[in-house]
What does this fold into?
Amino acid sequence: LALRLVPGYPRARMTKARGALVARNYDTAATLAEGLLDSPELRPAALEVVGRVALQRRQWSQAVAHFQALAHELPQSALGPYWLGVTRFREGDTGAAREQLDLAHARNPSPRITAALLDVLIRAADWDAAMRLAQPYASAESALKSGLGHAWLGGVRRAQGDLEGAVDAYRAAAKAQPERVGYTLAAADLLIDLERFEQAAGLLDQASKKAPQNRLLQFKRAYLAHLRGDAAAAEQGYRSLLQREPDWALPLLNLSELVAADAARGAEAVEMAERVARLTPQWSTAHWNLAQRASEAEKYAMAREAALRVIELDPQHVGARAMLEKDDARRG
It folds into this structure.
């Protein structure tokens, strides 16, 4: 109500700025927050918003300046060091990120700050420190904390290359919090990487009974059928998802690849691939899929155009470059 009746009211303006940030309307968020930087009461919140906008835009120096000012405004808070650490991490300065996140964690060992620090430790390959950070959560009596801690341990094991250990950790996380489908998906992904398809299918089937409408579980089940060569089950799974969400690019892309295996359905595969490329114009994989499907259907002009788009988005794409070279040779 306040937003409608008194849109210029500072607190209402701050609420709108935060809402715009969450909605990724960064210009609006920055404009609203910048107008509050002179407000003694709301300056810290405004600094956080404009800093996060700069962070999303990869404007590292601006983000750092705003978050340093935030740390100055709230000298005992974890908020400034936290965002400085996140910025330094994304910028690639692991040492500076660790320094700031250590400070933030000492002030407030919240799950969000702990997770950010864990990412830094994993990048630094400081496995002992990462384990020490995650283990207390995994050993907690709280199901929420235990699930989170085991998931963190899974991330550490995965980064170490210990996929078996990572599977066990994610399974423990899923056991602690069966409602958190992401833990089951993480374990299933690793089992797929290990080509233990039966075990992956068992996990996904069990989770699907508890969350039958979860689209990610249903997609993964269709994808697993695809990998196992069960084309009928895979197609049925992808089409079921697309009935619910016709514009979901991922199952549509996979379905186009599946359909293309039947030469008699080449035109159908191309049509699907074109639709995926239209839905996701900035996704190089979608355009590469279109290039492949068009080439298989001997639609060489379309394939070339799609391959050129791939190169625009991913200049080092080996497959697209090879396709263009082959097409150049074909054209003489």
